[in-house]
Give the backbone structure.
Amino acid sequence: MIKSIILTILVILTFINLYLITIGKRQKKKNLKQLEILRESLEKSSIEILKSTNMNISSKHFFVTDINRGFLLIFDKINKKFIVINETGFDLFEVNSFKECKSKIIIEGKFLLLSATILTTDKNSKEFIFGSKKRKSKSLFGKFIIDTTNQFTHLINTFINENR
């Protein structure tokens, strides 16, 4: 009697696991497709923006936020400037007017509240937000958001230091 109950429970758990694995694979494919569409959209809009700003592409990097928004960071070593493109427009920065780039990460207790990069120039300051939803800072996604913010900041600081 007990053996049949245990066997039934194991069979049910096996079916649940198989179902979750199938759903997980579908969701992963769906998310990857959404990210690819977002990246392609930013790439398309970057072509016209780069022409209008007379920029050359030395390197480009794609970043995604916690709410599936994207940033395309493009560096131009020849003209010593870089551009950040998102769905709503772009921000152009020149090395000679650049003051500071730093990460702003707010953790309260165990929770990540904000993860952003702040760029300061002679004229203004601009904040690029990578994480604004409350989530555990030690979770896989929380660490990913923090790492993404720090990588974005590091790439800009490295470019600025190499091109001054």
Notes: DSSP finds two helices and eight strands in the chain. Strands lie at 59-64, 70-76, 81-86, 89-94, 98-108, 111-121, 125-131, 135-136.
